[in-house]
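User: I'm putting together a teaching handout on how multi-component assemblies are represented. Below are the sequence lines for each component of a complex, exactly as they appear in our records. Could you produce the 3D structure of the whole assembly as structure tokens, so the students can see both representations side by side? Please keep the chain order the same as the input.
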Amino acid sequence: MEVVAIKCTVNGREHRLECEANLTLLDMLRESLGLTGTKSGCAVGECGACTVVMNGEAVNACLVLAAQVDGADILTVEGLQEDGVLDPLQEMFIRHGAVQCGFCTPGMLMSAKALLNGNPDPTEEEIRVAISGNLCRCTGYQQIVEAISAASAKEKSREKKEGKNCGW
Amino acid sequence: MRTLEVLAPETLEEALALKAHHGTALLPLAGGTDVIPGIRRGAYGAVALLDLSRIPDLNRIVDDGTEIRIGALATHADVVESAIVGAHIPVLSEACGTVGSVQIRSRGTIGGNLCHASPASDSVPALRVLGSVCEIRSSKGTREIPVGDFCISPGVTRVLPADLLVGIRVPKMRPGSRWFYLKLGQRRAMAIAKVSVAFLAAEDGGVLSDVRISLGAVAPTVCGAPRTAACLEGKKLGETVISEAVEMIQTEAKPIADIRSTEEYRREMVGVLLGRGLRGFLE
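Assistant: Of course. Below is the structure of the complete assembly, with chains in the same order as your input.
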């Protein structure tokens, strides 16, 4: 099996890896880097459990070859918190009961993160579209939609409190 | 998961030279949304992959005056977000916006979707009514094939072993064109079409001309509905004309039954979608 050299940034940290050419980004994260927060569900891009943010976009890590990750900037669920402080999305998922079995949660969070990065004030419809590639078999989605909505609103009020001109 | 090797050329010339040398033993990889599940299923046997994602400018969308040129590696998200596409060929934005999910649209490419040659493709019916042309390159030169002739059967296209699809040229829609893309799937996200209808026509005082209809998922390839298009040509849209067209498309379409739907349901629904789209113009 051919080995490819990869340099990429994962959660702000630069990594240099030698991967087998058939390795997917999902396997690279879970097996090579030990970042098991990203879940392996269907492995064919149907369920969204493996969603990570790659160069600002939500992608299914199971459909990306590690060889295509060279030079990329990857954010996984482990990178959402900063110095032990949870991301507003994580806080709101907890507060709104958006987590039951928890298997879809990392993927849901990352789809939501990609959405809020590009669109800090999404409508409910935009939230539903953003997570439409993520299956949840427990919650019925309603609490997840509410959590994402609350996180966007919370981000707005926090920015306001801090007096930042955030352009909304 | 099996693959032997991934070749990642930095230039198109290098990619074409590799393709000329290795032919079908080298499977082009763009966004990977079809290729990677295919490899996992063992659909391609022992192939090496030709990763095209490092080649600069292969994903560009450019306004060429009378046409929009879309690089083969433009993702469905690139197409949906492109102001050029939205302004001049909105039926393609609409169709690409119904593909898979956010995650699939951010990786899957327009060229990859064409080369996958699925009869249930969303982009192909739209590209077909727009009269788009595929630009195919080999180390020997460039040739062009209309999108309508590009797919031969599911998974089989006119791309030869030494060829790469590099772009699609799409004539701009005329101002005031009437169009729709309607798709029926199991659910709204992640659903492969059971039936889809793309429609484009010029309209003057309610009278349709240059009527073009493409149908997805009712034949081995995306196909046209020339008899139905002819029946609408030169007509002023009204309930009688629409009912005639709906009846005609239900006899003209020759769907099959498969895992996603039955022949009868598809035949019924192709008429429902055409009727729904045409009635939308009356509002």
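A couple of points students might notice: The mean pLDDT of chain B is 94. The interface with chain A takes residues 1-6, 8, 29, 31-33, 36-37, 39-40, 49, 51, 53, 77, 100-104, 106-107, 188-190 of chain B (CB under 8 Å).
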